[in-house]
Each structure stands twice: as C-alpha cells, then as structure tokens.
Amino acid sequence: MIKQRNPFLALLLAIVPGLGQMYNGQVKKSIVLVVINFIVLLLFSCTQVFMSLSGITILIIYSIGFFFYRTIDAFIIAKRNKLYELKQYNKWYFYILFTAAIFACSFTIEQVSGGGMRSFSIPSGAMEPTVMVGDRILAQLGYYTNNNLQRNDVVVFHYPAELDKTIAEKTHYVSRCVAIAGDSIAIINSKVYVNSKPTTDNIELKHKFKCFTNEVLSENIKKKNNIHNYDILLEDIIEVGGNSFYLIDLKQSDVEKLRAKKIFDSIVDFDFAELDPNTILFPFSKTSLQWKQDNYGPLWVPKKGVTIHLDQENIEIYAQTIINYEGNKSAELAGHSLLIDGKPVSEYTFRKNYYFTMGDNRDNSSDGRTWGFVPEDHLVGKAWLVLYSRDLQQSFFESFNSDRLFILIK
Fold first, then answer.
1. In which domain, by residue range, is 27 found?
2. Strand segments (E) across 252-329
3. Average pLDDT over residues 282-311
4. Are residues 239 and 324 in the same domain?
5. Domain count, the chain
6. Taking Cα atoms as reference points, which of 395, 336, 376, 361 lies closest to residue 251?
7. Which 8-state DSSP code applies to residue 342?
C-alpha cells in the first residue's frame, strides 16, 4: 500500500529517539539513533564523564543537537516521501510498543546503575550561600551506592527524624556532610573541628548578628543590601530590655558593608545562649545539656563494625540511634539498660555507617545538631548542579536569576 508520509507526524514521533525515522522506513538510521541514545545514557548514569562544568556543557549541547537533528531529519525525509510503501511495522500499536520499549530500557539502565538524575527545589536558606532559596538543583541518584560519602560533600538524603514514615516517604533534605562514620565532631565558638582538627571552610559562611536600630527596615533597603526576610528571626524587629534590634544571618563581608553604609546603629555578634537557654540539642542527654549551636560536642559518629561499651553515658547518647535506625527485631530502653531482643546488653556493635551534616548557613539550619545522625540507608544522592534559580515573590519573567544558571555545587 502506497501512502504519503505526514511530515508533522514524523516530527512529533521523532521526539522519541529513532521513532520518526522508523515511521519513514529508515530502519538502520533508527537503530543507530537508539544505540547512540543508550550509549550516552549509560555514560551519564554509570560514569562520571559528565560530572563537571565542561561535561554538563557538552551534554547540553549534545542533547539540543541530537533532538533537533532527529526531528528535522524526520520532517524532511517525510516531506520527500510522497510515494511511500507502508511496511509491516507502520502500525500505531508498533509505535506505542517502540516508545514503551525505549522508556523501559532507559528506566532499567537507571535502576541497575543506581543512578540517574533528579531535580529538587530549595525551600529554605539552610544551605546558603551554596544553595539558595528558589534554586532548582540536580542530584545524582545512587551516587553513594558505588562511592563513599566524603567530608564536605553536599548530599541529598531522607530526613531521619520522621520516624512514623518509611524511608522512601520521608522528606528530602540537602545539607553538607561535615563528619563521616568514625569521626568525632566538635564546634568551638562557631568553628567546626573534626577529629580535633579545625576544618577549612571553602565558602564564606553566615552567622547571626544583632543589628541595632529603632527604624523598621523597608523592603527597598532589604533588597538593596541583599537581606532576605528568611534570614531575619521572626522576620521582624525585636525589643528586649529597651533595645530594638534585628537578629539577622549575615556573612562577615556583608556586615562590613552594612557598617560602612550605617544602615544600623551598631552590629554585634550574637550569643546563642541568649536565644533559648533551655534548648537541648542532639543527643538530648545529660552530656549535651550545655551544648549550643555554636559550642557543641565532642560527639563520635557511629561506624559500621565498631563496638562501644554501653555505660550510662553511651546509652543516653546512642540508644535512640540504635533503637530507631539499626534494624534490630527488638530494641528498647528499660530504666538505665538497653534491651536487644528482650535481653540487656553491655556493649553494641553498629550495623550501619552514620554521618553528621550541617547547613552552610550555620546559625539558621536544622541539621545534625537538632535531630542527629544520617544513616547510610537514608542517602539519596549527591547534589551536583544548580540548574536555575527563581525569586517566587517576583513575576514569572522577572523571577529568574541570571547569575545562578548551571552552577556546580561544591
């Protein structure tokens, strides 16, 4: 049967790699395009070939070029095929099967590799300035299936503290790993120490400052000076003991600029003991009664295969981690003892690795100091790239931030 090809239908079908060419009877070219598509998908899912700025640039150029090549080619060939003899595979159900097979194979590759990419939106400023409110980031799923989580990695994980949910149902969090399994972490006057050594911050971190003024900050002043409402405690001025001030998360460089502009009467460091002297941080024990966000620890991070003696102090520190995340058939506290399968134990060997994370916006972050360790089976992937960023308070076309396009997350 002779039937002319529809160029617009060919173009539409070519959105699926190779299908537009199959519609036009170009079987060999269709197979070549499908093979190319899967080779790139394998490289993307199973290797680190594209995990760099140059790599993502090449991938974007390839994806755009590959899309336009196959769609335009299908359109042109269909326009030329005025006398086309229909083949046995030129049936609507074959096109559906072809499409299903492509997607099934792509899904299988991603599942087997444990990889693939997924985008996440950022709703809070806990990781500023690395990741900003309004950012849409890409994370490489399953990255830690074949790679060890390293200190300083920015990681996506399931929020451990949602104990009433399965792991898959838990909320996704993004934070920086500051201590890995077996490390000891401490914070002294806002400086992080791992295994008694001070860490090096690759970025300028934010900290809380008391900014004294009797004037209400206008939205115009906030915008000009890069002060976000979510960086201001209660998003309002605070009055204590006859003094009026804002409690704002700022970088030191921003503090110097604000002082030079005389936006505030004075700006001074903030002591967390002033915020809530009754706050108890993780691990919610006698040991941590005096710990604050800027003076915390030392705290040892559990490591798989390591055995600890369960004295009273260690029971207070690690019992909840053992009960909630270790996967024992039965684990519970009974008075001052930890019971495993109904029997009191005097020592415990950890079955999983754990990690301690903190937000880069150290003084405005819900992280390990608040809710504890991240178990290894809660890891989702490695945060890799900021795709784009939008200010949701602006109109659609004004909301995109041209300074935050395709930024590698470090």
1. 7-113
2. 266-269, 296-300, 307-309
3. 92
4. no
5. 3
6. 361
7. T
User: How far apart, in whole angstroms, are the C-alpha atoms of residue 109 and residue 9?
Assistant: 29
Q: What is the pLDDT of residue 48?
A: 61
Percentages helix, strand, coil for the chain (3-state, rounded to 5) are 35, 25, 40
0.70 surpassed by pTM: yes
| Domain assignment of residue 190, yes or no | no
Q: What is the pLDDT of residue 76?
A: 94
Structure tokens at 180: 């890995």
Q: Where are the alpha helices (DSSP H) in 122-280?
A: 143-146, 219-224, 252-261
Residue 111 is predicted with a pLDDT of 62
Token digits for 189? Answer: 């006057």
In a domain, 90, yes or no: yes
Cβ density class 364-394: b for 16+ within 10 Å, e for less: bbebbbebbbbbbebbbbbbbbbbbbbeeee
pLDDT at 406 (0 to 100): 84
Tokens of 283: 């691990």
Establish how many alpha carbons lie within 13 A of residue 389's alpha carbon, considering only the half-sphere containing its beta carbon.
Answer: 21
Rounded CA gap, 85 and 1, in Å? 6
Mean pLDDT, residues 55-72 taken together: 88
Based on the fold, state whether residues 215 and 263 are members of the same structural domain.
yes
Report yes or no: 333 and 285 within 8 Å, Cβ to Cβ.
Answer: no
Q: Taking all residues of the chain, what is their mean pLDDT, rounded to a whole number?
A: 88
